[in-house]
Every structure is written in C-alpha cells, then in structure tokens.
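Lab meeting, item 3. Inverse folding demo.
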C-alpha cells in the first residue's frame, strides 16, 4: 500500500513539474508579446471595415493608407490633411499597447486645425493591421520607416515629418527617431527605457512580487517565440543617436511606467534641443487631462519652434545643394 502511494506521489510530482515547465516555457511568455491569439482569431468574426467613420465623424478630410511591412504584414494607417492652406508638417501618431489609431481621432482634428497633416498608424498586431506579436519597437521602427517611404511615394510628403508616441508608441517613436533621420522632431509620452526592465516592473506590479532570473528567462523565451531580440527593445540606447528636437513628458504619479525611465531617456538623448515635462498629478493614462491647456500650449510652442524650423532648415539645405550644383556646372 505504501509503495503504491509513493509511486503515485512521485508520478504526481513529475507531472506537476512537467506542467510547470510547459507553462513557463510555452504559455507564460506569450502573455508578454502576444496581442492576438491565432486560435481565438479563427473563431472571431471579421471586423467591419469602418475605420474611416471614426475620423470622418470628427469632420476630418483624409483617407486610409494601407501598406506592406518589411516582413509582408498588411499595416493600416489613416492620413488626416491639414485644414490650413499651407501645411506646416506631418506627424505620425503611435498608440499604446492594445490600443489603435482611432484613439487619436480627436488629436488628428486638433493638429489639422493647427496646420499639420497627421498619420495615425495601427501598430502591427493592433487595430486593422495584421500580426500576432508586439516586438516593442524592434520591428515597429522599420514599419515607421516604411510608412515614410509610402507617404513620399503616394502623397509626395517628404519634408518636416515628426512622430508623437504614447506609452508603447513612445518607445517605438524613440527607436524610430534614432534609426531614421528623415524624422525631424518627436513628442514622446509616458514610455520606458528598457523592455527587460519594464517587464520586471510589470511582474512586480501585477503579481506583487518579481523573481528576476525567472522573468528574464520569460523575456528571452518571449523574444524567441515572437522572433525578435529583446535586448534590441532598448529605447535608451537609441536615444544616444537622437539629435533631432524632442519633447518628453511623463506623469509623476505613473505606477505602470515610472518617471525614472523618462529621466533615463532624457539624459541619454544627444540632441541639444530637448525638453522634459513632468506632469505633477498625472498617472499613466491621464497626462493630457492633468496637463490640461498649459501642457498643450507647451506642445504647440515646441512645434512652432522646432517642427517649422526643421522645415526651413530642409529648404535652406536644398537651396544650398542647388547652388553648389550650379557652381560645379559653371566651373566645368
């Protein structure tokens, strides 16, 4: 009887350990990067293509722009045109995790009235864009570059392009700014400086504890499943290559992403034209509300000072190149 009990007990322990290993190795990492579960998508009804309605309801003039990513995903964006006769620039809007481009409809209206085109992008695996996993900027920064290519090809938009990113979108924005110098300015809100660090923070926030070696293992596994290198999801590293004008803002009461990460990013940014705004009573999701009119006046001032100036610099550079070409021809 005792032998039988011990045998069943050992088998139970082995089965339990096997299930733990299976859960930690194959299932738990998916919660970190997987935005869409492929199995659930099979049973999900196809969403109706009404993305234009959200923007048109705001009285915006624009259109949906769909394009292919470097790894052959269909990505969706919406271009809203400036309401002014002279367009000051074009701002690519990057949303937070599990959000979508429609969340920017109100901001698109504001920017349109200020004289800016805006392009709200559904990040891969979000909204109307294809994909299963979020790679926290590693692949998304290339999607931003591809969108800039498409804007040049289809809309003849080539000058004075900026990014405005919130949370995850801010991390993508920082990596895109460091990667692609065609982006002339950036507004970055409430984002992290290191993917690995923020996952460790999230485990502690949601579970009440964090065992760093285990969390780091899950991060590495998540990267393998989603086919990206987690060590490359490192906005602070890309900040060292940012020499464009940039405004960073963060809520002082943010418990999801601590303001210390904004300060790390800010310190690493190479640009001499950089601003850090701390919103005293704001948490992660209400920076706009708590910042209020003063915050948006600061953004308007930043755009007037840097976005428009960058366009003038581009024009001067183009004129100088033309003069140099003419001088070379005259000498020959």
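The presenter then showed the designed sequence:
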């Amino acid at each position: 009887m005792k032998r039988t009990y011990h045998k069943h007990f050992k088998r139970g322990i082995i089965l339990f350990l096997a299930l733990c290993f299976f859960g930690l190795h194959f299932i738990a990492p998916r919660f970190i990067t997987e935005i869409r579960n492929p199995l659930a998508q099979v049973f999900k009804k196809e969403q109706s293509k009404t993305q234009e309605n959200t923007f048109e309801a705001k009285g915006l003039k624009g259109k949906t722009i769909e394009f292919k990513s470097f790894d052959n995903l269909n990505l969706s964006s919406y271009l809203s045109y400036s309401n002014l006769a002279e367009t000051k620039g074009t701002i690519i809007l990057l949303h937070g995790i599990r959000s979508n481009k429609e969340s920017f409809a109100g901001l698109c209206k504001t920017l349109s009235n200020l004289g800016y085109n805006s392009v709200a992008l559904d990040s891969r695996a979000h909204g109307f864009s294809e994909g299963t996993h979020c790679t926290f900027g590693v692949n998304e920064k290339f999607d931003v570059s591809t969108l800039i290519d498409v804007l040049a090809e289809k809309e003849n938009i080539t000058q004075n392009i900026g990014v405005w990113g919130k949370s995850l979108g801010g991390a993508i924005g920082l990596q895109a700014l460091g990667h692609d110098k065609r982006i002339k300015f950036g507004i970055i809100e409430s984002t992290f400086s290191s993917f690995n660090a923020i996952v460790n923070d999230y485990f502690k926030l949601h579970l009440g504890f964090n065992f760093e070696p285990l969390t780091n293992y899950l991060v590495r596994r998540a990267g393998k499943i989603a086919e990206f290198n987690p060590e490359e999801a490192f906005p602070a590293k890309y900040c060292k290559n940012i020499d464009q004008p940039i405004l960073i803002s963060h809520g002082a009461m943010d418990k999801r992403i601590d303001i210390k990460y904004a300060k790390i990013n800010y310190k690493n940014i190479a640009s001499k034209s950089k601003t850090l705004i701390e919103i005293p009573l704001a948490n992660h999701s209400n920076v706009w509300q708590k910042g209020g009119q003063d915050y948006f006046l600061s953004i308007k001032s930043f755009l007037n000072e840097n976005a428009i100036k960058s366009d003038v610099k581009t024009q001067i550079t183009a004129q100088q190149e033309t003069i140099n070409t003419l001088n070379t021809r005259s000498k020959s």
